[in-house]
Design brief:
CATH topology of the largest domain: Naphthalene 1,2-dioxygenase Alpha Subunit, Chain A, domain 1
Radius of gyration: 22 Å
Strand order of the largest sheet: 1-10-9-4-3-2-5
Structural class: alpha+beta
Number of domains: 2
CATH superfamily of the largest domain: Naphthalene 1,2-dioxygenase Alpha Subunit, Chain A, domain 1
Shape: globular
Number of helices: 8
Number of strands: 16
Order of helices and strands: HEEEEEEEEEEHEHHHEEEEEHHH
Helix content: 10-25%
């Protein structure tokens, strides 16, 4: 275990976990300015495949274009604002067609046809394509940014570049996903993930596989935080049985297969790397005290093609762990809402939360003077 220090930091004041004013400021300073993880690229493998993503009050279409790239657009016709798609996912053969008046858009978002608009002087076809959102791919994950001039991804999240190449994450395919909606401020979800101080009491099964003292952090500042935990002697992966249920990721071998890795990618993604599969959490705000969490399990494609492939051991393990975390986080949310709540001291085992708070406050443009 590495040396850690919370630098005598305290938890955030209660207003940061329920105030509508803070929520609105987060929208402006964080969720409309930072890169947000929205999907796994492997879910739309073919030209014309699309996903609908509900994010920060907007509806987006994430589309695989004719050149193989992925682009996100607002799910909104430029005629009278009607949503183009109401299903969760689908395939455009060539055009996205508005169901109201049949305006049709190419896979690149350009307006291809608009019936009966001849003679309308203010109709300028080239100016009425779908409204795009900045989009990029990293290690098989799709990120978007609402800012008109965002900080480039490789600068905003520089610690990620090249960090996980050996895991060959773009080659993984999703085999299962679960969506949870909980009565919790999004920061409590991230803070819970960022420490294992709670693991002996809350997660006895997890703590048997990866004892909470056998942990270290190799990224300790900025928007990407986390590090490895060591598997116990008789554990080989994070499953109910402790056994693997997939093939080793990338070119990992030997001692590398004895570690699991956990990283927060601020503000809305967790990346958890087991020897034989990856787990991605995406956190979306639904309000000041409500969050939606998407949890997705990814394995090597050739592992999923084996006749005896069964990921249920891994799925059950994390579903149990997730629900334990969501339940205790809801209790934290209720306690913080109490008139008696005052910021308390972080343990040195919660050093990553203290750093997350500093990152959060810096991006919010605030300082704590009453903690």
């Amino acid at each position: 275990m590495d040396h850690r220090s919370s630098d005598n930091a305290r938890t955030l004041p209660g207003r940061y976990y329920g105030s509508p004013e803070v929520h609105a400021r987060e929208s402006e300073r964080i969720f409309r300015s930072e890169w947000l993880c929205v999907a796994t690229a492997a879910r739309i493998p073919e030209t014309g495949d699309w996903l609908r993503v509900e994010l920060e009050g907007d509806s987006l279409l994430v589309i695989r274009g004719e050149d193989g790239s992925i682009q996100a657009f607002h799910n909104m016709c430029r005629h009278r604002g009607t949503r183009l798609c109401s299903e969760a996912e689908g395939h455009f053969k060539k055009f996205a067609v508005c169901p109201y008046h049949a305006w049709a858009y190419g896979l690149d978002g350009s307006l291809a046809r608009a019936p009966h608009m001849e003679g309308v002087d203010c109709f300028k076809q080239d100016d009425l394509g779908l409204i795009s959102v900045h989009t990029t791919e990293w290690e098989g994950q799709v990120f978007v940014n609402f800012n008109e001039q965002p900080v480039p991804f490789d600068k905003a999240l520089a610690a990620l570049i090249g960090k996980f190449t050996r895991w060959e994450l773009p080659e993984l395919v999703p085999v299962h996903s679960t969506v949870y909606e909980i009565e919790v401020n999004w920061k409590l979800v991230i803070q819970n993930y960022s420490e294992c101080y709670h693991c002996p009491a809350l997660h006895p099964q997890l703590n048997r596989l990866t004892p909470f003292r056998d942990a270290s952090n190799d990224l300790t500042e900025g928007n990407v935080l986390g590090g490895p935990m060591h598997l116990s002697k008789n554990a080989f992966s994070m499953t109910m049985s402790g056994k693997t249920c997939g093939l080793p990721l990338g070119d990992l071998e030997g001692p590398e297969l004895r570690d699991v890795h956990y990283y927060v990618i601020f503000p809305n993604m967790f990346l958890s790397l087991m020897p034989d599969y990856a787990l991605v959490h995406r956190i979306h705000r639904l309000g000041p005290t409500r969050s939606r969490i998407e949890c997705e399990w990814l394995f090597r494609r050739d592992a999923t093609e084996q006749p005896d492939f069964d990921p249920s051991d891994a799925i059950e393990f994390w579903d149990v762990t997730n629900r334990q975390d969501w339940s205790i986080s809801e209790e934290s949310q209720k306690g913080i809402a109490s008139s008696a709540y005052r910021p308390g001291p972080y343990s040195n085992l919660e050093s990553m939360i203290a750093e997350l708070d500093r990152t959060y406050l810096h991006q919010l443009g605030e300082e704590i003077d009453d903690a």
